[in-house]
Amino acid sequence: MLENLPLPEWALVSPDGGPVPQVSRLAGRPLLLLMFHVDCPGCIHRALPFALKLSRAYPDVQVMAIHTQPEGFNRSADFVLEALRQLSIPFPVWLDEGDTTYKRFGAEGTPHWWLTDQAGIVQKSIFGSMLNSLHRLDYGLSEMFQVPG
């Protein structure tokens, strides 16, 4: 479990060949990080739309996503980019080739969420896209910003 610890450095690539920031450079603002896979129905139909909703509701939070490739799945960067384009995802998405970051972060599956505070310390680590998981994320953000829930 990563709760109450900083996120470890990740091993990611950009789908468009651009640079990927180091985790340590993201401190200063809270971060909502979503690990997903394009063939995961809960990721596509619940988690990514919810991340988009949260990015609009909490503009002071950095929202980013990591596409991971579970064993048996091998989607190209172009395939992932097209899926994200169709969903109109405005936040950065990185690729976890070889599941290195998935394993390093101790993800329980997809979708998996991490919420860090402005110091980069994980406040919540939540697996799933069902209503209870999404409520826990929203509650964690409202606690962080002291917004009545």
Distance between the termini: 26 Å
Helix-and-strand structural type: alpha/beta
Tell me the major beta sheet: 5 strands, mixed
- Beta-strand portion reads 15-25%
Q: What letter string, H or E per element, gives the SSE order? A: EHEHEHEEH
How many separate helices?
4
Cα shape: globular
Strand order of the largest sheet: 3-2-1-4-5
Integer average pLDDT? 90
Radius of gyration: 14 Å
Classify the helix fraction into a percent range: 25-40%
Instruction: Tell me the total number of β-strands.
Output: 5
Low-confidence stretches: none
Describe the protein's architecture and organization:
The chain has 4 helices and 5 strands. It is α/β, with parallel strands linked by helices and 149 residues long. The longest helix has 17 residues, at 41-57. The protein is globular and about 40 Å long.
Outline the secondary-structure elements.
Blueprint: E1 31-36, H1 41-57, E2 62-68, H2 77-87, E3 93-96, H3 100-105, E4 112-116, E5 122-127, H4 131-145
What characteristics describe this protein?
single chain, 149 residues, alpha/beta, 4 helices
Brief characterization of the structure:
The protein has 149 residues and is an alpha/beta fold.
